[in-house]
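Need fresh eyes. Consider my entry:
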Amino acid sequence: MKQNLKNENQQMAFKTLKRYLMMASILRYPNFKEEIYLHTDVSGIGLRAILAQKDKDYRNM
């Protein structure tokens, strides 16, 4: 992927975000035997929706 970032701070932020998005603790397969939550958010310019589950300690996954 070609990075066209203007300064060192942007480059560091991009690399940090990329590293966190690839961590196994963030991305997991859903457990369809457990409850799935739909989190939604809307603003004047967009809409987002996230499917989430809680782990065995009741933390959001």
